[in-house]
Amino acid sequence: MRNIKLTLEYDGTGFCGWQFQPDQRSVQGEVENALQQLTQSSIRTTAAGRTDAGVHALGQVINFHTSSTLAPDVFIRGGNALLPPDVRVLEADEVDAAFSARYSAVGRSYRYVISTRPRAVGRHYSWHLPLQLDGAAMQQAVANLRGEIDFESFCQAGSGLDHFRCTVFQAAWRQKDLDLIFEISANRFVHNMVRILVGTCIEIGRGALPVHAIGDILAARDRCAAGRTAPAQGLFLVQVEYA
Hints:
alpha+beta, 10-stranded mixed beta sheet, about 20% helix
């Protein structure tokens, strides 16, 4: 059996998320349906990250095993011919049999976009907040998010994880025109971690919480201590890294 790795881009607006759900439109369902038509065999995919409903991907990575002899570039051309326009195959490679898009990943990068003005075009790709936000305070709040950290306070309650430790490589806010952009890279992420971090930073940016609040919230190890969960449409899975 061959092991094929694909890099995907998708607009999460019209999906229930990556993972297959009965009677709902999922990215996994659309991708597996296209691959099954292409290979004329049953296909099960593994994704680097199970993005939630409304979350977008610029560089989602998946893999699947197949006995098909199709060349990798056929999975790009054929896949895109069979997929709906809100999902695209960007790259295809044959990889080692042991490779797993999820378990072989050593890093993942996410981006969250906040727009300070209402948008007609692009409204599905940012969170519109008509607030005066202190971007410098928001950046100061995340400046010390480095290394291995317990993110239980920034995980959706009831996730049932064995542990909440993530090793953060980089976390920063930056301004681009009228947008505030949060970018974070880590070895793993717990459920809704980025969106809860963003929601908490908004409270800091509008002055409702002090700059040092994130440290206190982490120490509490209690979801109730953190801010709201930011809406899904501003979040992008940007890249997945492998050794």
